[in-house]
Amino acid sequence: MITWRSLFKKFLSDPVALCSGIVLLILVFMAALAPFIAPQNPYDLMQIDIMDSELPPSWHDEGEARFPLGTDEQGRGILSTIMYGTGISLLIGIGAVIVQAILGVTLGLIAGYKGGWIDAFLMRLADIQMSLSTLMIAIIVLAIFSATFDANVYADYAIFMLILIIGIAEWPKYARTVRSSVLGEKNKEYVDAARVIGLPARKVMWKHILPNTLTPVLVISTIQVAEAIMTEAALSFLGLGMPVDKPSLGSLIRSGYELIFSGSWWITFYPAMVLIALILALNLLGDWMRDVLNPKLRRGED
Questions:
Q1: What is the mean pLDDT of residues 126-155?
Q2: d(CA 80, CA 165)
């Protein structure tokens, strides 16, 4: 069984994983410390001047040192909006994955342990869910939500709606993974011993079987955070995600898309580069974790 110490050694010895981890750590700290280190608060109207709109990066002749990456059409510094927007994108991605994991792990554990008609019903429900596109479901629900309520209400609850919609739409991936792991664990000797001493099914599932199914869940979670962030970015680009006054990386890309051919390329370019770096770092770390934590691959290395 692999230990945390050996896992950390493997991480340090893999240059791709190490670089991805450093990039992700920098982005997370940048987002977490945005209120303290950002040159400007893009949510504070007192700090925004429309006369500063569409200023190029500071190294251009027309640029200013207080806006290193330039400004958008509202006069907000691109660097500041990226810092705050990265935090919102990470919050949505992590929040959606928590919702996915709670639903998927619970239903997958019950389906795998109980079997019978419960297993058949839950897996058919998962099949129906997986046959529907997450983006399609999100577009329909968010379009109805935005049409039903005014812009202020939508802006207040957009982040919670995105977390719930993306989370509920993706639970079958966790459920199927956990179910397959439970099917391989529930007939082992330690589970039989737990049943013999009279433990109820609830304790057998949650205290004995579940801890032995968390490795694939950890791998999936890393990749699912990236997928949730990409889904949110796509929805924001379509105008159904975060509002412009509370920018995520996706809404920042959308806000400058119409201006990219007019010369204000930096409004879209820099948020897009940060989004690509974030998604790439998460996916590479997920692939590395899958390879390291896969018992068959470890045996092949040995």
A1: 83
A2: 28
DSSP H helices, the chain, are 4-13, 15-32, 34-37, 78-114, 116-131, 134-148, 151-169, 171-185, 189-196, 201-203, 214-237, 249-257, 266-293, 295-301
pLDDT at 195 over 90: no
Q: Which of 158, 164, 160, 169 is nearest to 240 (CA)?
A: 158
Q: 């200023």: which residue's tokens?
A: 55
pLDDT of residue 296: 54
Burial of 300 from C-beta contacts in 10 A (0-12 / 13-18 / 19+): exposed
**15-29+78-294 CATH:** 1.10.3720.10
pLDDT of the residue at 14: 87
**pLDDT, position 298:** 47
Domain ranges, ordered by start, for the chain:
15-29+78-294
